[in-house]
Amino acid sequence: MNSSVLVVVGLGNPGPGYAGNRHNVGQMVLDELAARMGTTFKKHKTPNQVAEGRLVPGGPRLVLAKPGSFMNTSGGPVSSVLGFYGATPADLVVVHDELDLPFDTVRLKGNGGHGGHNGLRDIIKATGTNEFTRVRIGIGRPPGRQDPADYVLRDFSPTEKKTLPNLLSDGADAVEAIADLGLLAAQQRIHAPS
Q1: Site feature Discriminates between blocked and unblocked aminoacyl-tRNA: at which residues (predicted)?
Q2: Is there a binding annotation on residue 21?
Q3: Could you give the CA distance from residue 25 to residue 178 in angstroms, rounded to a whole number?
Q4: Which contacts of 146-149 are long-range, i.e. CB under 8 A and separated by 24 or more positions?
Q5: Is 85 part of any known ligand binding site?
Q6: Given 66, 76, 150, 181, which residue has the most CB atoms within 10 angstroms?
Q7: 151 labelled binding-site residue
Q8: pLDDT 10s digits, 11-27
């Protein structure tokens, strides 16, 4: 990773109607990070909302980006924000919802396929690589026979909302660990049994 800047993208859909959806948990984690950094999101020259700052003095500069497009077309905004800051996919951390992890679970991954996640699929297509870091925020599988596409576009349940602040904090902690320690040491810390 380029130690001077780390681009952290939170996936989701734009607009207040989607803000509380499970699909937008990546952007919710970025809100937590921005609050920790004492910064706010602003319109940017790229098609993203961007907040910049450092988590610790002397630490890497973090560029937090929320694509202004819908989830399935995240690649263009991600590619443009990387180009704007002179960053490469090696400097990219994507925070996203993950159906294949139980709710309230955070896992870090160095690279790999998209696993059916259309936001990741579009980022891989736009950047030409799957070699970027992912912070996978577990939202669990839909109950019964509910369509996963409907499930991710619904708000968290009342029971989940009680635990959600802890999940968002854990996601932000994971990004902090990546920025401070690098991916491998962050994985050891985040994946260790509690």
Answers
A1: 13
A2: no
A3: 18
A4: 148/99
A5: no
A6: 66
A7: no
A8: 999 999 999 999 999 99
